[in-house]
Amino acid sequence: MPSLPAVPDGKRPTLTDLAARAGVSVSLASIVMRGAKGAGAATRERVLEAAREIGYRPDSRARLLRSSRSHLLGVQFDLQQPFHADMVEALYTAAESAGYQIALSAVAPSRSEQHAVETLLTDRCEALILLSPHAPVSRLTHLAAQLPVVSVARRLRPRAQDVDVVRAADDEGARQAVDHLVALGHRDIVHIDGGRAPGAADRRRGYKAAMNRHGLADRARLVPGGLTEDHGAAAARTLLADASRPTAVLAFNDHCAIGVLDTFLRAGVAVPDEISVVGFDDSHLARLAHVDLTTVGQEVPELARLAVERAVARLEGEATEDDREIVVTPRLVIRSTTAAPFRI
Amino acid sequence: MPSLPAVPDGKRPTLTDLAARAGVSVSLASIVMRGAKGAGAATRERVLEAAREIGYRPDSRARLLRSSRSHLLGVQFDLQQPFHADMVEALYTAAESAGYQIALSAVAPSRSEQHAVETLLTDRCEALILLSPHAPVSRLTHLAAQLPVVSVARRLRPRAQDVDVVRAADDEGARQAVDHLVALGHRDIVHIDGGRAPGAADRRRGYKAAMNRHGLADRARLVPGGLTEDHGAAAARTLLADASRPTAVLAFNDHCAIGVLDTFLRAGVAVPDEISVVGFDDSHLARLAHVDLTTVGQEVPELARLAVERAVARLEGEATEDDREIVVTPRLVIRSTTAAPFRI
DNA sequence: CTCCAGGACTAGAACGTTGCAGAGGAACAG
DNA sequence: CTGTTCCTCTGCAACGTTCTAGTCCTGGAG
């Protein structure tokens, strides 16, 4: 015999069941359940009581089907990026306070962006918030022809038609980091970059510009890196093998910086005594007590709030056409991996 | 070619639009779009072509509303746990090959489990897969009275009524780790535990039992730890402050182990030369080239497959009542943080 | 030639909601 | 007492699908 149905009757209770139980019409039950006005206090209480008794739960699909607005924002994120995890959390609360809901779709090695977006679309999301999307600009514009699209943390150049961008000022962040290091007395500052990752080009540019401005153009040096600990570790090994070791390193992101830290540690190079390290993102990794990494904060809650705000503005037709890009100034968070350089 | 705006009036195209465009009835268009049989080859092609032209996309909400089955599995996961990220990825593929879809709902400091489950329920998920849920057993059984519930990685004792459990044999994993260390020649093996975290009690038990079996009962030693790097780092500091330092450490999970590694590194204690370290989970953290942590693998794809399989079995009434718990044997992955102890 | 099987196609009723157009009353102003 | 207004409540038609029960063919068996 097949296992017993989860619920006695097997069926999940509907508005009709609820209405019957409370002895009112379906419409009235609906009114009560969504807290609309137009129901008497006594009846309201009776309906709510009945709902509790039979364990009634509104069916969001039917609800959304009926009202043409779904109030759903689709969010595409990468399961392996802590920065995305932080963003998703912030997006939940930002969306909630704007009266919207979030539908998540994950990207992973075995699940492409294309696939992720596909499911969000069939779920009838009204707008898409894509975290550091890698898709070609052509695909993004094609999407944007169908519904509002916000790209977070990935700058689009040339600006993609109809695609909104919310991002941190990566160049400015790199500048802040360099300024901080220079103020401490550093002159040999290396940047381990992020290759083709979203934001990497801007961080490179900001780094170079800042070095120039401090008259250190000839000391500027880029080392190829990437987004992961492994990339950082490899770059750090390159630096260690070198005759002239820098006194400070600006890594592409926190992950990368941690790879750097770890490699230095293993090689017996003291941080920050012998070398200073700065990360980027201020993800929760950086905040771990034993890491305590100086890093450039991306103001996650702010980015999330703006992304939602922009998506909603497009949906309600409030946004103008000439402010497609919102840039948030990052904020340097000084912790314990930077200090004045070792003087000879 | 960049197709033109979906439909003149800006509305997303529906089956009716598609049918009109292709010159067939709505029913037939539906048949073609879901690949059912009952349509001629020529017509089929014509409808598909029309769908491409107007950019038609089925509306999953309407679809699910109509067919009483939603084929949706709700997954609750923690944004901050890498192990969960790995599981989610595996769940996507497992569900897909079982003909089901996944709806994600995240747990985070600012978003409770209760809230996460709430949204999954209103989304009409047919079953719930909860990754290391912390909810009290009473709430789980209450949920399970409404729909099939699978708890992954959290053992429920006493067995909760109607709740399925899929988990790794945590005690067995701890045993494997201890056996490995003993085989290498270690005798002073410490376990940094996970407190009240799901699985922690079993790992403690497995550790103690293994130590007993090797006649090392009097050397067994527990140090309070936890799930994060910080917990591991704190525990490691305790060990370092001690007069008699162990030669090997079994940490509660990879995160914790990494905190331990880092602290040892900073203190100039060489791993594995002076002390061996073993983690738990084989999350991608452990696989990073510069970490290369010996760890107990949880067989993520297998856990995911079984969780989906079990949920589906309940839904289709195929599962019996007396095999509520599925236990998967973990597998020790030996990397480079373990070696024979330093001999005096 | 008749009959029937079966393939291609269609009409219309669900699914669980919400929104709209009203039906009854009670309260109140005139 | 009449008319008006407001409030509570109801019935019914959507929303975009799928499903059931057909209709209308074509062609092959008898």
Structure in words:
- The structure is a homodimer of 344-residue chains.
- Chain A is of the alpha/beta class and 344 residues long.
- The first copy, chain A, has three domains: 44 residues, no CATH class; 126 residues, Rossmann fold (3-Layer(aba) Sandwich), CATH 3.40.50; 130 residues, Rossmann fold (3-Layer(aba) Sandwich).
- Chain A has 13 helices and twelve strands.
- In chain A, strand 6, helix 9 and strand 7 form a beta-alpha-beta unit.
- In chain A, helix 1 crosses helix 2, helix 5 crosses helix 13 and helix 8 runs parallel beside helix 9.
- Chain A starts with 14 loop residues before the first helix and ends in an 11-residue tail after the last strand.
- Chains A and B meet through helix 4, helix 5, strand 2, helix 6 and helix 7 of A and helix 4, helix 5, strand 2, helix 6 and helix 10 of B.
Remind me, CATH topology of the largest domain in chain A?
Rossmann fold
Shape by Cα distribution of chain A:
elongated
Largest sheet features of chain A: 6 strands, parallel
Please report the distance between the alpha carbons of the first and last residues of chain A. 83 Å
Number of domains of chain A: 3
- CATH architectural type of the largest domain in chain A: 3-Layer(aba) Sandwich
Could you give a short description of this structure?
The first copy, chain A, is α/β, with parallel strands linked by helices and 344 residues long. Chain A has three domains: 15-58, no CATH class; 72-168 and 300-328, Response regulator (Rossmann fold, 3-Layer(aba) Sandwich), CATH 3.40.50; 170-299, Response regulator (Rossmann fold), CATH 3.40.50.
